[in-house]
Design brief:
Bound molecules: zinc ion
Oligomer: single chain
Order of helices and strands: EEEEEEE
Radius of gyration: 21 Å
Strand content: 35-45%
Number of strands: 7
Shape: elongated
Helix content: under 10%
């Protein structure tokens, strides 16, 4: 005789999880190191790395909560890894 234990899985997500919004503090580099153009666009499907650590941006003096790196390409074809500090929008 066997007893079948049926596990009931409750659907649902933990309460209190809000979407966090981020504002971009700054982007590096602002210009292409090869040609100086500012026409730099993210590579579609390109790799994005997110590092969740807070700090103070050296160039602007503004605090950030995380940094993202993203592979972008300039109009001249130069591939640029862009660094982007971001700040969490918090309700106060
Ligand atoms: Zn360029």
């Amino acid at each position: 005789m066997s007893v079948v234990m049926e596990k009931k899985s409750k659907g649902g997500r933990p309460a209190g999880s809000r979407n966090r919004e981020y504002v971009v503090v700054y982007e590096y580099p602002a210009q292409c190191p090869s040609c100086g153009s500012t026409n730099i666009k993210p590579i579609p499907g390109g790799e994005t790395q997110v590092h969740e650590f807070p700090g103070i941006d050296a160039a602007t003096g503004k605090p950030f909560d995380r940094v993202t790196w993203r592979n972008c390409r300039c109009e001249c074809g130069q591939v640029i890894r862009r660094r982007r500090p971001e700040k969490t929008m918090t309700d106060s």
